[in-house]
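User: Can you fold this complex?
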Amino acid sequence: MESRILISAFEPFDGDSLNPSWEALRSLTPLPNNGEILRLLLPVSFREAPRLLREAVEKHKPQIVLSLGLAGGRSGFSLERIAVNLADARIPDNDGEQPRDLFLYPGEETAYLSTLPLGQLLNELEKESLPASLSNTAGLFVCNAVFYEAARLQARGRIRQAGFIHLPYLPEQAAEKNAPSMSLEDMVRGLNRVVERLLSQELA
Amino acid sequence: MESRILISAFEPFDGDSLNPSWEALRSLTPLPNNGEILRLLLPVSFREAPRLLREAVEKHKPQIVLSLGLAGGRSGFSLERIAVNLADARIPDNDGEQPRDLFLYPGEETAYLSTLPLGQLLNELEKESLPASLSNTAGLFVCNAVFYEAARLQARGRIRQAGFIHLPYLPEQAAEKNAPSMSLEDMVRGLNRVVERLLSQELA
Amino acid sequence: MESRILISAFEPFDGDSLNPSWEALRSLTPLPNNGEILRLLLPVSFREAPRLLREAVEKHKPQIVLSLGLAGGRSGFSLERIAVNLADARIPDNDGEQPRDLFLYPGEETAYLSTLPLGQLLNELEKESLPASLSNTAGLFVCNAVFYEAARLQARGRIRQAGFIHLPYLPEQAAEKNAPSMSLEDMVRGLNRVVERLLSQELA
Amino acid sequence: MESRILISAFEPFDGDSLNPSWEALRSLTPLPNNGEILRLLLPVSFREAPRLLREAVEKHKPQIVLSLGLAGGRSGFSLERIAVNLADARIPDNDGEQPRDLFLYPGEETAYLSTLPLGQLLNELEKESLPASLSNTAGLFVCNAVFYEAARLQARGRIRQAGFIHLPYLPEQAAEKNAPSMSLEDMVRGLNRVVERLLSQELA
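Assistant: Here's the predicted assembly.
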C-alpha cells in the first residue's frame, strides 16, 4: 500500500525574506511511485498554524506528518525529540501575538515524543555526510506548537507518525548574521533521504 | 597581459581525513583565457610550508598569491587582514613541531596587511549570497606562517599581491563536530568569483 | 509552619575535580529561623542518584526538593522547565553506565514541568543582577534523571514542589576550557535568594 | 626605585550603563609602598582617547601603561598580543564617528606587539584560578586605537612597557545578553595580581 506524507514548512518571520524550511520543501524532488508527498506552507502564527495543520490532516488523511522549521544558530539538521505543551515567545509571531508561558492545551499531556524513527533518520543523514543531531528542545515558539499539534493528532490515532526537523539558516541569511548555515542543495539532499526512508517503512 | 595566480591549500591535519582548502582548490574550474592558475598543496608544517611556497613563487613567478586554509568553527569565508610575525601552536603540526611564542623571522616586520582588494572580494561573495567576513586574526599556526611568507615576498617585490582566506569545515567534517560548515559547491562557487575578480584586476 | 527544603547537588564527573553544584550547596549560608535546609550529595549515577534522592525524601519528608547540577558551557543560572522520561548519555556516568535512548520509567509520563515558581525565582536573580534564564532542556543525563525523579515524587503527592537549576562552570574550571563561568560567591548569593524565596512561600 | 604604572579604562558605550574596565579599575586596591598607580578614564572616542592617553603619559611619565577594555562575549581575561594600525568600527563611537578601514597613523608601523610579560601575567591569573588566555586580536575599535597609541609611545621610548587586557561583561550586563561574564571581585583580584606583578619587575 502506498504511503502518504504531509510535510509542512513555514513562511518567513522575524524580518527575514525567506524561510529555509519552505525553500527546502518546495525544492524536494518527487519520489518514484512508492508514496505521495503533500506540501503545506504554514504562517508563523500560534493561532493559525496548528489549526491549518489539523485541517490538512483531516482533509488529506496522511499516514505521516513531518514538520520543518528554522532554528537560526544551529549548525545542522536538528531531529527534535520532544514537543512540549507550552507557548513562550521571545518575539511576536506574524500576527503580533506573543504568548508568555501559556499552555497550548490546558489540562492535556505535558509533552509528546516524536514517533518518527529518529535513529534511522540520523543514520541516513550521516550516510550522506550531512551534519545532523538529535535535539532535546524545539523551543516554545510556533514550531513547537505545530509539532505538539501533530503529535497530539498522532496520539489520537489520526496519523501513524509525527515529527519535527529544524533546519539551519541558508547561506544567504547567514551572510548578514555571521551564523552557521547549510546550502539549499544539502538541505534538499538530506530531506529527500529522510522522506524516502519514511515512505519505505512498513507502517502496517 | 595575462595574469598568473598561485593558489595554495593545505593537507589534512589534527586527525582529519581531508582539508576543505585543498578539496575546494582542486575543484576550482579553470577560467576562460584571461589568466593562469597554479595550484600548490602544502604540508601542515612550520618548517616546510613557507619554504615550499617561496620556492614555487621563485619558480613560477606569479603576480598574485592566494593561500587557503581551514578555520574550524568559523561560519563563512574569512578574508584575513593581517599576517603576524609569530608562531604559537596549540597542537603539533604534521611534523610533530609545536613552536610556542616564537618569531617567524626574528628582527623583521611585526605584521603585514593583506594586499588583496578585500572589500571588493567581500562584495563579490556577498553578491553570491555566501557568508563572508573580514577577519582580524589568521591565528598563529601554519596558516599564518604561510600568509606571512607570502606577504613578506610581496613586500620584497617578488609578487604584486598576497592574501589569505580561511574556509569553514565541510559538512562531512561538521557532522562529527557539531560545528558550522559550508558545502564544497559553495566554497568552489565563492572561490571562483574571488579568483576571477583577482585575475580581472589591472595590476599595472 | 516551618518549611523544609531538600537541596541536592552532584559529585564531580567527566574528569573534573569538583562540581560547582556541590561547592555552591555546601557554602549556602543557613537561614534565620523560617525553615530548614537539608543538603544531599549525589553520585553521578543513573542507578544510584534517583534512588538516593527518593530515599532522602521518604526519610526527611521535605516540602520542597531543589536539585542542582552543572551545565558546562552555559553562562548563568538555568532554571529548568521540564524533566523528560528519557536517558541518553553522551558520556558514561561515574559507574561506567551509558544508557542510550532509554525510558527512565517505561510506560509513565513523558515529561513533568517544574513546580517551582520559576518566574519569581528568575525575578529574584535579576534583582541580584545575576545572569539567569529559563531553560527548555535539562539534557538527558543524570541531572534530568534526578529532576524527573523529584517531579515524579511531586506528582505522587510526596512533596509540594520539585525543580532543577543548572549552574555554569566555576572560574577555575573555565580557566582550562575557555568556557563561560560564574564565581562561587555569585552562585551562593543567587542560591541564597532562591532558597529564601522558596521558604517564604505559602505552601498551604 | 619606585615604579609608576598608568592604567586606563573606558566609559560605557553601545547603550551600556557601565563599563567593566572602569568598574574594575576604580576598585583596584592600592598597593603597599612599592609603586604608584595612576588611573585614567577614557571616552570611547577614536579622536579623544588616544590623545588623552598620550597627554597623560607626557604629564605623569609612567614606566608602564596598561589599558583595559570590554570584549563582550569573551569568557575571561584576554591578554592582547598585538595592536594594529587600523580603525574599522562596526558601530559608531561615543562621538558618533565610525571610521571604516582607515589607518590610525598612515605610513607608520603596521602593528606593535605587547611589551608586557604576557606569559608571566597569564601564569599569575592561572595561579588565582581565574579564566585567562592570550588573544591575537584586540579588534579594530577604540580599544585597539588606545593600545596602538601606547605601543607607539613605547616604541618611541616614552614608556618602558605597554599592553592591553580585555575583560568580559560583568554579571549584571550578561543578565540581559545571555553572554559569559566575570564577577567584579574576580576582575579586581586578577588585576591586582597583574599590577603587582608588573610593579615587581626589574625595569632597569
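Chain C has a mean pLDDT of 95. The helical segments of chain C are 20-27, 49-60, 118-127, 142-155, 171-177, 184-199.
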